[in-house]
Amino acid sequence: MKNIPVLDIEQFEQNVPLSDFYSNDLKSHLIKNESVINKPHSHNFYLCVLFTKGDGIHEIDFNSYTVTTGSVFFLKPGQTHYWQFTSEPEGYIFFHTQDFYELHFSKSKLEQFPFYYSHKNAPDIVLEPNKLNSIATIFSSINNEYYNDLPYKKQKIASLIHTAYIDLARQYGNSKISTKATSTTYIETLRALEKEIELHYKTEKSAQFYAEKLHITPKHLNRICKATLGKTTTDIITERVLLESKRLIVHSKNTLASIADILGFKDYAYFSKIFKAKTNLTPLQFKKSYQ
Question: Is 253 found in the same domain as 169?
């Protein structure tokens, strides 16, 4: 059974100074890893990339985003992406594990930042020209520190990443955030729901199951989902299942029947019916249209 290729940090740098962090200038990174990254793939780490020059398209989980000067993209583990450039890009890119950041900031979580908080939040921003230089300076400092063997290397890199994320979160803006203004309790419950869905969506698809996991009633959970995202609990579960089905349909060599089985559907016809109801295409039609 073949699934979407998942890349590890050490694949990008065989003699990597830090096994839980990687940095490079974008031009060198793309040239060095051309055979790996010019096709759809996912990562088991967090990725942040800044474009100081260049144009093209960045596809993330079947949504296309424009690449332009000042573009910044944020990817969480498991997201599928690839690039298509119409002009040569420049900038910086870095990867890190969750532990790399959170071990240095024990009271701070990556999920505090809006671009990592929810899959519903946009994975990109475009910096204004007057902000680009200051952010690029931080990315350059991260890259320089990575390639220098100096004392307190990890601490310095983690500190620079923390500063970069704070400045980028300030630029992210309320317009990029999908969740509606609501109570902190609702936001925390939504975050907990997304975590539970990520763990169980292949086998559990009922709102009742997730409500029990969160120790609240299905009615209240539905109220929270409607208030924060304008969707029902079932909508959110189904969207996660559909995203994974699209990833597997397009990026793996599994048969459509085996994909249905992987996602917990014993009956392919039922899987196909749900897929078509949400996308207006059968799984086979979707595969052909994407190709």
Answer: no
